[in-house]
Amino acid sequence: MSEDILSDDTAPARDQTAAELAQAAGRLLSARGLTLALAESCTGGLIGHLVTDVPGSSGYFLGSAVCYAYGAKENILGVQHETLLAHGAVSAETAAEMAQGARRLFGADIAVSVTGIAGPGGGLLNKPVGLTHIHLSAADAEIAERHVWGADRAGNKRLSAEAVLRLVIRYVEGAGDDITPVH
Questions:
Q1: What is the pLDDT along the chain (183 residues), one digit of tens a residue?
Q2: What SS3 class is residue 100?
Q3: Does the N-terminal peptide bond of residue 120 adopt cis geometry, omega within 30 degrees of 0?
Q4: Number of domain units in the chain
Q5: Contact 110, 37 (CB under 8 A)
Q6: I want to staple 79 with a disulfide (CB 3.0 to 4.6 A). Which of 32, 66, 73, 120 is the partner?
């Protein structure tokens, strides 16, 4: 399943803080007896921090791999070297392999990855600062999102973390039914 979300705004409509999103995701994961793992690049562990700030998160959160460098993505998560060479670290293809690798590594029901260009530098014409790819991998679903945030580095990281938590909530609630398959 794939969803292409182009977000050029500095912030999407926000009805919940990052901490509230982490709590909501935790409640849903606990209620359904599902486990979660993460593969983080541009967020540098922020999502894992938010998840583990929730009391009782050890009941559903298995762990997070923060893989910034190509070598870490390859050696820890099993991202194919050819994928990184052909598409780069910031791509839908790399995000998919990161999430699938985290799901295998941790033995989780659900794994979500995030890779992007937080800024202020590092952007390219076809990959601007703020570009973020998110991917959720589960036994019954592969869901991809693409965002382009317009905030500063801290803001882009926060917006990416919130988007990951919203995706987890949507998936666990079963709201992904209208998402088209990844090809």
A1: 444 444 444 444 456 899 999 999 999 999 999 999 999 999 999 999 999 999 999 999 999 999 999 999 999 999 999 999 999 999 999 999 999 999 999 999 999 999 999 998 888 888 999 999 999 999 999 999 999 999 999 999 999 999 999 999 999 999 545 444 443
A2: helix
A3: yes
A4: 1
A5: yes
A6: 73
- The answer to the question of residue 23 being in a domain is yes
Q: How far apart are CA 125 and CA 173, in angstroms?
A: 37
How far, in Å, CA of 30 to CA of 166, rounded? Answer: 16
pTM: 0.88
**CATH number of the domain bearing residue 76:** 3.90.950.20
Q: Retrieve residue 110's tokens.
A: 């659900």
Q: How far apart are CA 95 and CA 41, in angstroms?
A: 9
**39 near 65, Cβ under 8 Å?**
yes
Contact at 8 Å (CB) between 114 and 153?
no
